[in-house]
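Hello,

Our lab assistant flagged a job as stuck in the queue for most of the afternoon. It eventually completed. Since we weren't sure the result was trustworthy after the delay, we are filing this so someone can double-check. Below is the sequence as submitted and the structure that was eventually returned. Let us know if re-running is recommended.
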Amino acid sequence: MTKDFTETDISLPAFLLKEMDIFSRPPYLRVRDQLLAMRRASPQVLLIEGGSRTERVAAGLLWACLLNCENEHDGLPCLICSTCKRFMQSVHRDFFVLDGREESIKIETIREWVRPVLGEPPREAEKRVILIAEAQALGIEAANALLKSLEEPRPQNAFVMTAPQRERLLPTLVSRSWTLTLPWPEPGRRTGCWEEKAGLLIPPGENETREEWELALAGFLKNGRGWFGKTGVKGAVSLTVAQELLACLQSALAATLLSGERRAASGPLYKAMSGSIDKTVARRAYEAVAVCQTALQYRVNPALVVDWLAVRLFVWMEELRRRRQG
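-- returned structure --
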């Protein structure tokens, strides 16, 4: 297995086993029922959106186990058989992981390491599983190369893609996928049980980093200070930080517009924008976020992307504040 695939730490079978009961509680009961229903006629491509990044990847791992478990219980994977453990430890010969957290997934990875094995039968498992974690990191060329592979259906292969929202992927990829939507996270709040522990495809401390960035952007939107000192540090704004910040902003925008219906919404960005934007600014903000997501796909420097977005948001909000005062 090459570095382009899996040298990430997803070897937490005991952790997943402990949190398995989350699928027995609302709102994840719906997710469990959908996974079980899909197994009867499993799609070639499953797209998992919503939730937190940890939850999306964990759901993808559980789907891989569900397709191949040797000793399922009540239709669910046991998570303790040899096959389940090797999938969760990412050491199974029929499990490939493309990790898009930190950088774009390149076309060479698809051509040299994915496509050659697709025509072969699985070596041990019932189905070979290719997990593309945070598939929004697929470059345009890599996404088109993946599409070519999906145009030749092979029942022994199962693809799983995770992404914050389906809109961040090429429409042609989404159209070939069965989409499973996890419960959407509240801005500024952790979701479910998995997010409470570090390790599963999330480096230790990254949750705190995301919260710090959200606080920094919220402060800049209020007073126009402190942002560039943070983004100007070399290497401070990774692709992951930029993507998470965009996701937080989208969630906060939605909560702001629906504040009357979602009073439980919280978080620094929500508090910074609540009452400080109108529908015109919100529409501009959504369009700006979409531009930034496209820029990241084309490998524009993440620091430049978030700086561009922060400046525009501040200018629009400041203009609105002045109009209201005048």
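-- support follow-up --
The delay was a queue issue, not a problem with the job. The result is valid. The chain has a mean pLDDT of 79. Residues 36 and 117 are 27 Å apart (CA to CA).
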